[in-house]
Amino acid sequence: MSQDDLTCETNIARIDQDFPAGAFSRCETPGKRRFAITIAPEDQGDINCSAWYAFRITPTRRARITIDLDYETCGHRYWPKTSTDGVNWTPVSPDQVEISGERGDRSASITLRLGNEPLFVAGQEILPPSVYDAWLDGFADKPFLARSLLGRSAEGREIEMVRMAGETTGQRETVVLIGRQHPPEVTGAFAMFAFVETLAEDSALAQAYRARFETLIVPLLNPDGVVKGHWRHNTGGVDLNRDWGPFTQPETQLMQGLLDAVAADPARDLRVLIDFHSTNRDVFYTIPDELPTDPELFTRKWLDLYQERMPGYEVERDARHEVGRPISKAYTYDTYGAPGITFEIGDETDRELIRRIGREAAIAMMVTMLETPLPAPADE
Known about the structure:
This protein is α+β, with helices and mostly antiparallel strands. About 25% of the residues lie in helices and about 30% in strands.
């Protein structure tokens, strides 16, 4: 791919991808008001069809333009959204988007009216590392929350861990939360933000939870893939959520080290791991109830309570387990006997609903965890 492929320009506007998460394969100009953007995955390996795109349009004058999105594989998935500041995003109106083709052959055409300001267009809201930094800065006044460097990605970007725990000494029950193994899955990130913020509240429930449990949070495990606008992989060409067990990548090796450190510490006990993702609907992928976990039947009790707190909304659960499957939830159960849960949010789930989902799921989790029996002392 040449640098010339990464920009295109007419006397109406210029399109580029020179910003974090910007990504397309090629840009051409079949007409002064028409741009053709080709979208391709980050590598030639087997890949999930999360066909991410993000670009910036810099107008030279007010005009209406059409942008054709063509895909080398998989086809159109994410509904386009626009932003003038890279922070606040608005879905493009349906009357401005034409989608043609079926399934993996779908393409899209977007008609936009340009003003005087540059306009970002992306498949989802863009959440680069700087957004996580700003989010975590918002907890600076919380004495029970400590940020640390878990390690670095393959390209040297920081991977932070946050420990949340009350002042009580001798805590030994641990909850682990993970986010952004897959770069485009920002709706899972939105749910994680609301989930963590609820755990950090000053409510009596949150204080009781923090007095008994420590929560270890790794909100951005694949910063390289996020910054480079990857569909699925890290820069090693690996789907990180297919590398739990092999642990061939520096990012997943950090998670292996973290979980092994918890398991080896006689003063700690891994209770649950929740991994936040996005897919085409809201669903929890869990361990089946007939498999024994510690805490016993935690997942069923948690999701039953969560459903009670969400009247008018159907909580969907998909319970299955394949021994040795190299994903976070299976590895957590196979290795530590603790329930692993993949918390999936739909690509286009209403963003206000996502905040409610994250908050109510966190409240239900705290209540359920506080009702679980204390683990047996380590010397028993």
